[in-house]
Amino acid sequence: MSPTVEESNFFRFYFLNLKIATKAVRVYFDSVHPAAGLATELANSKAKLTGLRFITQLQQQILYPSNASNVLSDNFDTTLIVCLLRNVIPRESAPVTGWDKLPLPGDTSTGADLARVKWYRNQSVHSKDGILSPTDVIQYWGDLEGAIGRLGGSNLLIEAQSTKHIVLDKSLTDILTKIRLNEHYIEENREMIDKLQVVVEKQETIKEQQEDRIQQLNDSLQKGGVQTQKHAAEISSHKESIDKCSDEIAECKKEIEKINSTIKSKHNEVTHKQNQVVNLTHLLVRLECKYNQKLNEIDGQLVKHDGQLSKHDEQIAKSAKDIEDMKRKQHDSGDIPGKIGYVIFFP
Predict the structure, then answer these.
(1) Predicted confidence (pLDDT) per residue in 28-49, tens digit
(2) pTM here?
(3) Domain ranges of the chain
C-alpha cells in the first residue's frame, strides 16, 4: 500500500535529517577540526571525553581506535559530532534555549543550528506515528534547510532542496523505517546506560563513604577506644554495605557491557542500511535521469513528427486551394470538365 501524504512527508523529512543534515554537521565539524589534526585533538581531550557519562563504549572505540590514523569524522554520527563540538576546544556556545530544545526562529548562530539538527533528528527518531502534516513539514523543512545551508554550504542546500522530490518507492521506505527503529533502539539503550552509570556513581560514592568510616573506626580501635565491641559491630555492618554496593556495581557494569554490545550490533546494522539508502538513492537518481532522457527523446520525436504533420497539412491545404482555384478559373471560362459540347448547324 502506498504511503499517505503525511507518511510521505515524514519519510522525506527523515531522509533530509539522515542524509543531508548529518553531512552538513560533518562539513562544519571538519572545518573546525580538520582531519590532519583530529587524532591529536581527541587525544588531548581524552580524559574529559571518556569521563562523560553518556559517552558509550562503542563511541569511545570509534574515537580512540588502536590505530589513531583510522580516526575519521565519517564514522561519527550526528549525536557524537555535536557532543565533540560542545566539549572539544574551541567549544561551541549553546543557544539561549539550550542544547535540548528547538532554538528560536531568529537564532541563526552555529550553536542554534547544531541544536536544530539534533532536535529534529530526535523528534524523527522518537516519533510514534511517523507522520508529518503539510503545515508542519513546510515549517520544519524550511527551518532545517536553513541550518543545512549555514552549516554545510550552498551545495548541500541545493541537495536539500532536491530531496523534496525524492522518489519514495517501497524499498527505500522499508530501509528508512528499519534505520529509524534501530536508531530509536540505540537512543533508548544510551539513556538506559546513562541511568545505570548514575547508579554506579551513587554506589561507588556510598562505598567510598563506608570505606572511609571503616578506616576511622579502625584508627579508633588502634588507639584503644572504649567502645571496641560497638565499633567492631559497626565495621561489620559497613563491610556488608560495601559488599552490597560492590555487587550492585558489578551487576550494573555487566548490564552496561551487555547493552554496549547490543548498541554495537544495532549501529552496524544502521551503517549497513545507510549504505543501502545511499546506493538505492543513487540508483533511483540514475533511473530518473534515464527516464527523463527517454522522455526528452520521445518529446523530440513528437515535436519532429508534429512538424512533419504541419508541413503535410500545409501541403494538403495548398493542393486543395490550387484545385479550388483551378475549378474557379475553368468555371469562369466555361470550360467545364466532363461536359459534352454540341455544335448546331443551320441550313
Answers:
(1) 999 999 999 999 999 999 999 9
(2) 0.69
(3) 5-166, 173-266
pLDDT at position 158 is 94
HEC states along the chain?
CCCCHHHHHHHHHHHHHHHHHHHHHHHHHHHHCCHHHHHHHHHHCHHHHHCCCCCCHHHHHHHCCCCHHHCCHHHCCHHHHHHHHHHCCCCCCCCCCCCCCCCCCCCCCHHHHHHHHHHHHHHHHHCCCCCCCHHHHHHHHHHHHHHHHHHHCHHHHHHHHHHHHCCCCHHHHHHHHHHHHHHHHHHHHHHHHHHHHHHHHHHHHHHHHHHHHHHHHHHHHHCCCCCHHHHHHHHHHHHHHHHHHHHHHHHHHHHHHHHHHHHHHHHHHHHHHHHHHHHHHHHHHHHHHHHHHHHHHHHHHHHHHHHHHHHHHHHHHHHHHHHHHHHHHHHHHCCCCCCCCCCCCCC
**Residue ranges of the chain with per-residue pLDDT less than 50:** 291, 340-347
